[in-house]
Design goal:
Blueprint lengths: L3 E9 L2 E6 L5 E6 L5 H13 L18 E8 L4 E7 L4 E5 L2 E2 L4 H6 L2 E4 L5 H4 L2 H15 L3 H20 L6 H40 L1 H6 E6 L8 H7 L1 H7 L10 E6 L2 E2 H4 L2 H23 L4 E4 L8 H14 L2 E6 L17 E5 L2 E3 L1
Helix pairs in contact: 4-6, 5-6, 6-8, 6-11, 11-12
The structure holds adenosine-5'-triphosphate and magnesium ion (MG).
The site of adenosine-5'-triphosphate (ATP) has 15 residues, from helix 1.
């Protein structure tokens, strides 16, 4: 069990007010262009993670002319999450009615996966998105991961700031922060590595279901962020001068990556757009599987415009796979026909029509 049992949105993008009780499995959101479909998914994403998938700034999220936005979600688990965010930046965040400072606990209660037209960037862009992808998985399956990540992150910030100071940095302080960085790095890396090994199995299985040939050809390789034939402490010491010239630390877990390869090539260099979309879909499904194995709960999948760039057969494959997960799905489309027969018929109450920001069941 997982997912949203109730969702309320106030003054978010073009949605003035919306209160819906989503289906535990399939929810189809139908509406013309600019009606507010993506905004609905974005509101769920923002409530769950504290960030949007299309704006880095929160201000465009608040409805024009309104002083604040309010989002509230009741989960099938019984937990509830609420957010009030004003145009001035004031924020009230609540979990189960109690104020919380950050999103850590809400994100744990409300695991959200996004599949949309920008999901390609997981393959096409730099390692940052892939690190975030791995870390989403590790965060949800291992409680100790976040403190270790924070430890390494803090040490990295201090080391970088020492390196940026004019003149020769204090060797004692550098050593102390490097020691901290290494301690956090080893823990973070061990967790990421174990997770990526598990991910590879689930991913290959999901991708083979979608396309047998691709499933056999595409592999994942975890890269820690430094050459592990060398010890990280030694590398950091050795590169102090060149890191200082560069103004940043070039070895460590902040440089980790998940290489997605087809044969000997980067997947993005040889696969078609449609094939890339299948690979990304399989990655996200694999994460859902691993999450379920550990937490016995399914994540919420926000699926926006998936039909774009997938042919009929592949669209059906991805939807079948998503539905077989038993996760709660929110799927947008401009009209029901655009999905064809790819999805099972939504049960009464799980088909939502969106018109000028108004959502009707
Ligand atoms: N802060 C805001 N206040 C009011 N309206 C906004 C705000 N931000 C965006 N909008 C408008 O909200 C509308 C809905 O956008 P949204 O992206 O949700 O549409 P959509 O249904 O997903 O459309 P498409 O099918 O084209 O993807 C757009 O007209 C957009 O310009
Ligand atoms: Mg949209």
């Amino acid at each position: 069990m997982g997912g949203l049992a109730r969702l309320e949105i106030h003054s978010f993008r073009n949605i003035g007010h919306c209160a819906i009780s989503p289906d535990p499995e399939l929810n189809v959101i139908v509406g013309a262009n600019a009606s507010g479909k993506t905004s609905l998914l974005e509101a769920i994403h923002y409530l769950a993670l504290g960030r949007s998938f299309r704006s880095s700034n929160f201000k465009p999220l608040i409805q024009s002319g309104k002083p604040e936005t309010i989002l509230f979600g009741e989960l099938a688990s019984g937990a509830s999450a609420g957010l009030r965010k004003s145009r001035k930046g004031e924020q009230q965040l609540k979990l189960n009615g109690k104020a919380v400072r950050g999103w850590e606990d809400i994100a744990r209660e409300m695991p959200v996966q996004l599949l949309d037209t920008t999901s390609f960037s997981l393959l096409t862009e730099g390692p940052k998105l892939r690190r975030r992808f791995i870390d989403w998985g590790v965060f949800h399956v291992e409680q100790a991961f976040l403190p270790a990540w924070r430890r390494a992150h803090k040490a990295l910030l201090y080391r970088n700031s020492l390196l940026k100071q004019p003149g020769k940095p204090d060797a004692g302080q550098l050593s102390a922060w490097e020691e901290e960085l290494v301690a956090g790095a080893l823990q973070v890396t061990a967790s990421r590595e174990v997770y990526c090994q598990r991910l590879l199995c689930a991913f290959s299985q999901a991708l083979s279901t979608l396309d047998k040939g691709l499933g056999g050809a595409v592999t994942l390789q975890f890269h820690a962020g430094w050459n592990r034939e060398h010890d990280l402490a030694g590398l950091l010491r050795e590169h102090r001068e060149s890191d200082q010239t560069q103004g940043s630390t070039r070895h460590g877990p902040h440089r980790a990556d998940l290489l997605v390869k087809s044969g000997n090539h980067r997947a993005v260099d040889v696969l078609s757009r449609g094939q890339q979309k299948l690979v990304v879909s399989a990655l996200k499904v694999a994460q859902g599987e691993l999450f379920f194995e550990t937490r016995e709960q399914r994540p919420i999948y926000l699926v926006d415009d998936l039909a774009a760039e997938l042919d009929e057969g592949n669209r059906k494959g991805v939807f079948d796979l998503l539905q077989s997960l038993g996760a709660q799905l929110f799927v947008t489309c401009v009209n029901r026909k655009a999905l064809g027969s790819n999805l099972s018929e939504p049960v009464p109450g799980s088909l939502f029509h969106v018109e000028h920001g108004t959502i009707m069941a």
